[in-house]
Amino acid sequence: MRPFKYSASTTINSAAQLLSANPNARILAGGTNILDLMKEDVERPDELVDINRLNLSVVKPITEGVNKGGISIGGLGKNAETANHPLIRQNFPLLTQAILAGASAQIRNMATNGGNLNQRTRCPYFYEVSMPCNKREPGTGCGAREGINRMHAIFGWSESCVAVHPSDMCVALAALDAVVKVQGSSGKVRSIPFAEYHRLPGEMPEKDNTLQHGEVVTSIEIPKNNFASKSYYLKVRDRASYAFALVSVAAAIEMNGSGIKQAWLALGGVAHKPWRAFEAERFLAGKAATADNFRQAAEMEMKQAKALEHNGFKIELGTRAIVLALTRAMNGGTA
Amino acid sequence: MMTEDTPDQELTEDEKQLFGQLLCEDQNQLTDFDEARRNFLKQITLAGGGILALQMFGKETFAGSLHEPLNAELPVNLENSVNVSFKVNGIKKSLDVDSRMTLLDTLRERLQLTGSKKGCDHGQCGACTVIVDGKRVLSCLTLAASCTNKSVTTIEGLAKNGELHPMQASFLKHDGFQCGYCTPGQICSAVALMGEARNGEVSYVTPNVRIKAAPIQLSEEEIRERMSGNICRCGAYPNIVDAIKEVHSAKPVAQNWNLVDQKELTEI
Ligand SMILES: Cc1cc2nc3c(=O)[nH]c(=O)nc-3n(C[C@H](O)[C@H](O)[C@H](O)COP(=O)(O)OP(=O)(O)OC[C@H]3O[C@@H](n4cnc5c(N)ncnc54)[C@H](O)[C@@H]3O)c2cc1C
Ligand code: FES
Ligand code: FES
User: N or C end of chain A, less CB within 10 A?
Assistant: First the structure.
């Protein structure tokens, strides 16, 4: 690991200022991603701003504004504590399941909500500094495009990058229509709708998201919903636990009598950002909650998918995963 | 190793003393579990194989702390030095570290606590698991600099007053290891897991996460899911699960292995 200066800040303002003053400074939250990448020489900050002493870890009900009745989770809240918070378990079990599907108990005890949003891809070409990677070193090419791309994207990729976003938590947040609150050194707070937080690679794969340097994720707001009893997070992976998703699905259904009023669907492991399955959602609105309709919705979504050389299996896998996740959501969200 | 000699004749004075400490019967609060553990330790010790186990799990743990710290390895020139004051196994420590130093390297290289192991150094194996402020975490992805005012418990801190922690004893009873490299991490992880279950924390395989938090009785599937952050290259998983089950249920779980007896030995 390269030498770096360790700075600990105690206020959002001082953290944002330290960051703004140094383009090569990075935030240290749980450290589970940034330290790993620094050991690999992928990330090379010359300063780490430790934000662990900021008071940003509370979970609290939102009592006013557009998201009234929803919940706010702190940017520094630990993944494990967020997942197990009684209000989250009761009202947003989709988020609980998604967080608990990721990483391991030890990592979830360390990982923070803000860090989870800003974790980088697990693409092996990104991790291996002797390989070309436009995300790590713009202009060097994409090693995975013609390389081994079994784990890579089937939606929204570009010739310059086929990497996927690795988070499970973010897939649930996408389906939950969350809003990311960020604050910069000017003290100004921005609210970023979750769908606009992460981006597709296009010609700028080095930018994972729309956060600007110097900004800190202070909280994530989740609006109230009526589908707590009908949601499910399904994760399909190479081993039973402690592995990144091949495909994952966050599914939620609000019923209107015997028909579907609205469905919320987001996919993980398939794109550079959590992939909201809007096509499938539109199809399901007003339909009966039958296996046949679930299958048709899934197929409709997957029509837009474009496989690479080694990941064609994700199209059928994704289709079946959507059907299974919707079915389990209808069954009360139990495995 | 398996001879007819009585084990006492093979024990050094050190070992006899340790043996006495481990098996002393004059404690007045013996739980069933402790009783079972004692009988077990006696059994394997009498059979000879236990001497090795005692050396590995007893002697090193208890006697290891008697060694003087090796000052020779103190770095002279620290780049980006950070002072960290924290507690390790209940003892206050204050030292200057390079900002890059992980908690794992600090424990192993600076504090002579080599129980925590470096398997991958990238968060992928769990061998470095320690307990910080009551939570199991990976010391390879924790900067020592960020540990100020925290309290760290390592495998060396689990035994109390010469008594193995029940989880350590249970790993011994169930042979929850082969090479032993993952074991300190497995045991620290399992100890913290007991607390998580008591607090009613759920997992990805919990059927209904909306239930109100209350102590959870872990199924085998739950134990496997919640221990998935600790990889065992030797594949001792079935025995690890048995060891955890025994402590979690506070009821004896049958050993799935036995020492060969005299009769079987003569038949070979
Ligand atoms: C072996 C392994 C397996 C894993 N498996 C999974 C998995 O299956 N599913 C999954 O979802 N995740 C998985 N993870 C990833 C894990 O969830 C992330 O590493 C973690 O969420 C990152 O959070 P952190 O607080 O540790 O971030 P850090 O490492 O501290 O930071 C990560 C990045 O975010 C930035 N950052 C941190 N906090 C903020 C903030 N408040 N505002 C702005 N920027 C910030 C940092 O500067 C850094 O660039 C795995 C990780 C490991 C090591
Ligand atoms: S050494 Fe820390 S997880 Fe492998
Ligand atoms: S006992 Fe050898 S790695 Fe687990």
Answer: C
Tens of pLDDT along chain A (335 residues)?
999 999 999 999 999 999 999 999 999 999 999 999 999 999 999 999 999 999 999 999 999 998 999 999 999 999 999 999 999 999 999 999 999 999 999 999 999 999 999 999 999 999 999 999 999 999 999 999 999 999 999 999 999 999 999 999 999 999 999 999 999 999 999 999 999 999 999 999 999 999 999 999 999 999 999 999 999 999 999 999 999 999 999 999 999 999 999 999 999 999 999 999 999 999 999 999 999 999 999 999 999 999 999 999 999 999 999 999 999 999 998 76
Rounded Cα distance, B188 and B167, in Å = 9
CA of B244 to the centre of ligand 3 (A): 16
Please give the distance, rounded to the nearest whole angstrom, from the Cα atom of residue B185 to the centre of ligand 2.
9
A285 close to A262: Cβ distance less than 8 angstroms: yes
Give me the residues of B, 101-120, that contact A with CB < 8 A.
Answer: 102
Pair A104, A186: CB distance under 8 Å: no
Is B186 an 8 Å CB contact of chain A? no
Chain A's closest residue to B79, CA to CA, is A3
Checking B192-197 for CB contacts under 8 A at 24+ apart, the result is B192/A105, B192/B131, B192/B134, B192/B135, B192/B136, B193/A105, B193/B136, B193/B218, B193/B223, B193/B226, B193/B227, B193/B244, B194/B167, B194/B247, B194/B248, B195/B134, B196/A105, B196/B226, B197/B248
Domain that holds residue B130: 81-157
Beta-carbon pairs below 8 A across chains A and B = 121
Which of A28, A105, A235 shows the shortest C-beta gap to B226? A105
**Interatomic CA distance for residues B162 and B62, integer angstroms:** 7
**Residue ranges of domains in chain A, CATH in brackets:** 5-52 (3.30.43.10), 231-330 (3.30.390.50)
